[in-house]
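To: structure desk
From: M.T.
Subject: fold request, one chain
Message: Could you run this one when you get a chance? Sequence is below, nothing fancy, just the single chain.
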Amino acid sequence: MLTMTWRHGVLLGALPLCGCAQDNLTTPPPDGVRILVTTRSESMSVGLVTTQAHNLARVPVSDVVEVGPNRYRMTLVCPDEASCRDAVGRVRGDRSFALGVDIDPRQQIPAKPTREMSR
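Reply: Done. Structure tokens follow.
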């Protein structure tokens, strides 16, 4: 039979709350730009594409997903807009890796239009 004192019960009950408080202390991730890359080779793995894009862009690359044959969507994590523009240019400039690089056109649709938009 398992017996527990009230002190142990309070401690066990408070532990999940401590975890929630820790989540509020973390900083949000920096913004980036989502791009679509068409690679020259169809036989590249997601890991190889991630490594190659990171080496070319010289910024962290995240969320790499294969969306079609030799087509990958990824996010370049940059501290500001100018460094994102430079990183996209470096990936776009290496024709041995990428045949094409496009900024992902998907946008968040606002839930409610602003007053200026409705005029």
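Reply (cont.): The mean pLDDT is 78. Let me know if you need anything else for the meeting.
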